Every structure is written in structure tokens, then in C-alpha cells.
Amino acid sequence: MTRLASLRTVRARLTLWYTAVFTGLLLIFGATAFVLLDRGLRVTVDDSLLSVARAVATSSAQPAGPNLADTIEAMLGPAFAERFFQLLDPLGRPDPRLSRGGHTAFPLSETALRNAAIGTETFETIRGPGVPAGGVRLLTLPVVDRGRLVHLVQVGMPLERVEQARARFLLVSATLAPVALAFAALGGWFLAGRALAPVDAMVAAARRIGAEDLSLRLAGPERDDELGRLANVLNEMLERLQRAFTAARQFSADAAHELRTPLTILKGELEVALHTAPLAAEYRGALESCLEEVNRLAALIEDLLFLARADADAVTLAREPVDLAALATDAATALRVLAERAAATLVAHVPPHPVIISGSAPLLFRVLFNVGENAIKYGGAGCAVDLTVHAEADRALLRVRDNGPGMAAAEQARIFDRFYRGDPARERGGTGLGLPLARSIVRLHGGDMTVESAPGQGTCFYVWLPLAARRT
Amino acid sequence: MHILIVEDEPKVASFIRRGLEAEHYEVDVAHDGTTGLNRALTADFDLVVLDVMLPGRNGLDVVRELRARGSKVPILLLTARAEVSDKVSGLDLGADDYLTKPFEFAELLARVRALLRRGAPAAPPTLVLADLSLDPATRKVVRAGQPIELSPREYALLEFFLRNRGRVLSRTLIAQHVWGLDFDTFTNVIDVYVNYLRRKIDAGFEPKLLHTVRGVGYVLKEPER
What we know:
Chain A is α+β, with helices and mostly antiparallel strands.
């Protein structure tokens, strides 16, 4: 898996390509060299045979008589003359002037005989039993005297040394090629790494910017190369992103603010009417229903405004020592009401001693309530919710776990988005702001909130908050 | 009792005026800061309800000026912003209380009453209704001579009811006062807490004191005979 995954990097792919191209080049180069070497060796052998044969032909043409055998033996050396040399008459019979046993070292082929008849020499390669390993290169040279074929000179040369040279070349190539390839791959990996290092740095920087502060920019747009241009384009994109982000924040802050006045009027008019005017029952019912919705709207707008202000770092917490243990007990009592309605159960595990946090009690209560409510709502009927508070060395941990259907990673990534609701088919209720708001509050308190879940495995929310500094 | 409202939004000024008049207060309205300041300095008001965001002179300016000129009239600030800094500076400048828009009208009435009561003899420390009593000093609750055990939230709820006896309290108002929060789903929980409380203070006793007002909320009162 990791190997496959590592092939997905550009660096690995570049190295692979580089090595493949290098392998191809090496093969072409090696094959060409081999062909050239082979041809060169054969030409050399043939040239030597021809010069030896001509020398012999010249000697045999002189009327040396019975001395011919000695002359040739002196010229070629006894072992060679015996094994790879013959003088034949025009019909292919051994020449009587070489009276040594009259053996035939090699048969005279039809082709050679035909060629000799028209005065042409013949090169042949002979293999088989009785022939030295690697075969023998054989030259049949006709000796013509005044237009008449006098006799044939046959000279052979064993190809063993040629074979050895070819084998050595192949062996050396086969040994060196993998080494060269390994170096090529290493070099490719190194070069690709060097070329891509600035891109990696850019990726890390872009990720940091996305996660932390959209006002930061990538370094390097001043470079006049591909990477500089990339940085430039990314920076322009960040600029647009930041502008859109700021505009969205500003919009929700403005909208919430502007909505407050009409809401104040709506709410005030409704309440004063209900409070003072003698109303028929149906009017009263209608106004009460309106008031209920206005209250809902007002609460929603307050939440939005809170989130917008938290985004803009404009929330000032009214901090006081808060006992998270007592608050959790309190929230659990309220949550059990919701749990009973949803046919779910809620169990709270809270330490018997106070867990003191410096923060806002109503806001922290809301965190506990929202996370618990979410667990009950999405855990489904009959689910069991477990709420645990636990104090560590310097922080408090709140864990809310349900044994409901759980959720996939894609959904987990979205649950802290505003107005996101897990299952659209589910009954209406809540605004989709509960979890984003809870996390926002937790972060205002210097803590953080995470989720762990898998389909069919239930869901677990973790909230940790820094403990108040102990006074000594 | 004579109350001055300084509020630039005519509709807001209008419903506050009508609401307060229905409670038999005498009400004057000024629509900007300068007029408001002059009226407050020239006439003898028992209370000023003052918006912070005003054209001309803003509310905080008006407070500063009033106090600088030695006026001791109680001031209730209305602010459209929940920012702590606004509230703090308003109170620092000499305002007596503040309320964030949008507000519950019942809440406005409660604040108005509280501010007008200032200078009157302090309310008796023990809150009593019929044979039910609550002592804020000892946090003891007694009904018909029998001590009653309450959880901290139930106690806070009862205290809120006792301080507003005879008044219908909406779920939203209760949530804001007893829990310091108000959001959609939470108001459901209020019903259950009221029932817990009712079981402890009303079950087994006569007459019943805690009543449901359908569609509106709850009221703690002695039944009319």
C-alpha cells in the first residue's frame, strides 16, 4: 500500500520516467555496440584468413616440388598447418605435394567448389562434431595460373577467441547495466527531489496559511521562474479567498446587527399587544405563535452574531471560576429530559471533586448541552449516551459518546460547518448551529473540540479545556 | 411616575410608550440625544430609558452630560450591541442598568420597577407567598412549616418566580434569567424543571401556587378567591 501510495508523488513518477528512459537508451547503446563489435571481429578474422591464403597460394605457385610442405609448415607452424590448412587439386582431392597422410580436415562444400570454378574465393563458418567449440571460419581460395585453375587453398581459423570476446562483452554489459541503472534511479530521485523541494515548501506554507491565517502570503513570487509564477498565482487566489471570507464575516455581522431593530419592534409590539389589549382567543393564539417564532429568530440571530464576533476575535469573555463538574451534572439533568423524549438514555460520569475552569458558566453550559443534545438527536431512538468529565494535570476533558449509527469521514469533516445537518430526512429541530457554536465557545476558552466516529461504531466528541491556574 | 424615553426608532419608542402607559406610567418621548438631554434637564422625570445609538448626541454622551450637571435621575440604557465594553462604559459613566435589544417586554417592566423602587424602603429579605417562604440569606425554602430540599437550579427558579409573583413569565424569560441563556431547543427543558419544582412545592399542599398559562408561560400566585 505504501509503495503504491509513494508512486503517487510526482517525485516518484519523475524518477520512474527518468529510469525508464535511461534503460531504453542503455539497451539501444548496448545492442549497437554489440553488433559493431561482432562485425568488426568477423572482418578481422576474414582479413587474416585471406592474407594467409594468398601467401600460401604464392608459395604453392612456385615450382618448389616436395619442399612445399616444409615451406608451409614453416610459415604457419606445425599444429596449425596440420589442423586448419589444406591444399587441394581442382577436383577437391588433397594435393599430392603435401604427402603427410593426405587427410581431409574439412569437407569441401559444393558452393566453394562452384565458386572456385569461376575463380572466386568462399568464406564459410563450420560447426558440428569434430570441429573445435565455437566453430571454424573457413576460406577456400582458388589458385589460377594463366586462366587455368591449378588448385585450391583452404585455410581455417577457430572462432573460439571471437566467441570469448563476445561473451566477455555481454558479461560486462550485464554486470554494469544494473549498476548504471541503480545510479540513474538514485540520481533521478535526488534531482527530482531537488527540483520539487520548493514545491513541497510551498505546499506546507499554503496549508499553514489555510489553517491559521488567511492574511499570510507565500514567499517567492519575486523569483522569475515557474515556481515564482506558481507562488504568484496562489497568492492572488489567497487574496480573493480572504476577501470573500472577510466579506462573508462582515455580512453576517452586519446582517445580524441590522436585523435586531426590526426584531425588537416585532417582539415589543407582540408582547405589548398580548400584555395590554383585550384579545379574542384566536387573535391571542396567532400573536403568541408569532411571538414564539420571533423569539426563535432572535435566538438564531444572537447565535449568528456570536459566531461572527468570535470569528473576528471580537468576543470578550466575562470570566469567572466555573466548576465544570457541577455544570455537567446540571446539564445532564436537563439533557435527560430530552433523552427521555427520544427514548434514549443518558449516563453522566462526573468526578466528585470540583473541576475549576476560568470562563463563562452560561456559555460552557451551552457547550455541554449542545454536544449532549446532538448525541441524543443523532444517536437515534434507544441509543445510550455517556457523558464523562475527567480532570487531567492541566486540562479538563469532556467526552460525550453515543452508540448510534456513527458517521463517515466525509460527514465528520462537515459537522462543524454552520447550518450543516447530518440527515436531511430527520425531523426539524435545532438550527444547525449547535456544534459550530459549541466549538467556537470552547476555542474562546483556549480549548478545542474534536470528533471520532465511524459508520456503525457510534460517535464520540472530545472537548478539552484548560484548567484554571491553581491559586496557592 | 413620569418616564422619559429617548429613542430614535419611532416604532420602538411607540411600543415602549404604549406598554408603559398600560402600566399607568406617564410617558414622554424624545427622538434624538440633544432633545432628550434638554428634556431630562428641564423636566422632573423619575426615570430615563435611553437608547445608546442615537443621532446627534449618542446615549453615552447624554449619560455623561446628565451626570456632569448633577442629575440623579435613574437611567436605563438600551443597547443594540451585546458587547461587554458598551455595557461597562455605560455603567461607568453613571447609567443604572442596561438592557440588550431585542428584549422581553416583561424584562423591561421589571427593570423599570426595580429602578423606580430605589430609595424606597428595601424589600423584606425573606420572600413569601401564602405559606411558602424562601430566605435568600440561608437559602432555606419552607412550605406550611415543612422544609423543602431544592437543587440549585430549582432554587434559582423558585427565587425568580417569587421575585416576580403574580406575573406571567415566559419560557424565554426564565431561560435567560435562571440559566443565562436562551436558545430554541433549550426552552423545552424549562417545562420539565417547572414540573420538578411544582412537585416539590405544590404536591401535597393547598392551595396550588405554580400555574401554567397556556401558550405563554408560568405564573406563581395565590388563586383568586
